[in-house]
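User: I'll paste a sequence; please echo it back and then give the predicted structure.

Assistant: Echoing your sequence first, then the prediction.
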Amino acid sequence: MKKLVIIGFDGTIADTAPGILYCMNTTALSMGYTPVAHDALYGVIGVSLEQGFMNLYGMKDDEIDYAMNQYSKLYSIKGEEMILLYDGIEESLKKLKENNIKLAIVTQKNEKFINNMLAVYNFVGCLFDAVCATNVEEEMEKTDMLRRVCAELEVDPADAIFVGDSYVDAIAAGEVGMDFAAALYGWGFRSKEDAEQYNCKAYLNNAGEIGAKLLSVE
């Protein structure tokens, strides 16, 4: 049994896609770009926001700072309201805690946004031993975040597992020597076949499976 379970937020703990899409499309439209459909988010949520604007709308490097600033202002008003915790996530987290497993969140969402969201859903936020997110003062890759959480909680990466819904998450886990569990219900992997190439330790069809399946991972 693992000592630490690290979980992504977008597409793993909560469906944040409606708010992200609304804020990205509204920002892009104000800059003269055509809005994209909901399905366009597959494979985009989980990468950095900068890369998302480039991938979805073809924005140029010199437009990204403006887009990021506009997005952040809008998301702080609308995006945080448009999230929905996945069914079964609270029960899964409690099951892991009951078995003395440490819990952490690693996300490329801005720490201000994630802290606000966890304050709203305090019953979930209080279950985590650590939260690592992005901020304006420090640029970190997801691998840096995984290593930081392990160091903070004094757990070797080999004794931890990362639960995420995208290839970005899977690659980051592999680079730090950590096992990976694929959340197939999020916005990264479209199917189990998409995730199988990453040597996953578990495949999760819904958030309610996180607790039971991860308890059996050595």
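The chain has ten helices and eight strands. The CA atoms of residues 142 and 172 lie 6 Å apart.
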